[in-house]
Specification:
By secondary structure, the chain is mainly α. It contains five helices and no strands.
C-alpha cells in the first residue's frame, strides 16, 4: 500500500493489517478491490440457510471451508478462524448451531469492514 494512503488499518480488530498491506503491495488497488467485491458477494449468501441447515453438516462444512482461504488471504483472520471452527464442528459430532451463529456474526462484521475498506480506498485513490 503506498505510503500516502490514509486508510487506518489498525482501526479494526477484524483485519490483520500486515496481511492486508502485503497483499495490497503485491496486487495493487484495482485487484484488491476486485477481491474485496468477490468476498463481499460470497458473504452476502454465506450461511444464509435456516437453522435446519445444521442438519446438513457436510454442506455447511463445505461452505465454511470454501470461505477460510479467501477470507484469510485478505486478512480477515477472525472470520477465517470462525469458519475453520465451524467446519471442524460440522465434520465432528459437536453441536454446530452455536458455531453457525458465530459464523454469521463474524460474516456480518466482515461485510461491514469490507464496506469500510472499499469506501476508504476510493476516497484515497
Amino acid at each position: 500500500m503506498p505510503a500516502d494512503r490514509t486508510l487506518d488499518l489498525a482501526a479494526s480488530p477484524l483485519l490483520d493489517p500486515d496481511v492486508y498491506r502485503d497483499l495490497w503491495a503485491l496486487l495493487g488497488a484495482d485487484q484488491m478491490d476486485r477481491l474485496l467485491v468477490r468476498l463481499e458477494r460470497q458473504l452476502a449468501t454465506a450461511f444464509a440457510q435456516d437453522d435446519a441447515a445444521v442438519a446438513n453438516r457436510s454442506d455447511l462444512a463445505r461452505e465454511a471451508h470454501s470461505l477460510v482461504s479467501q477470507a484469510g488471504m485478505l486478512g480477515f483472520l477472525e472470520f477465517a478462524e470462525t469458519c475453520r471452527e465451524l467446519e471442524a464442528v460440522c465434520l465432528g459430532e459437536d453441536d454446530a448451531a452455536r458455531w453457525l451463529d458465530e459464523a454469521r456474526l463474524a460474516r456480518d462484521r466482515a461485510v461491514k469492514e469490507i464496506g469500510r475498506l472499499r469506501g476508504a480506498s476510493k476516497s484515497v485513490t
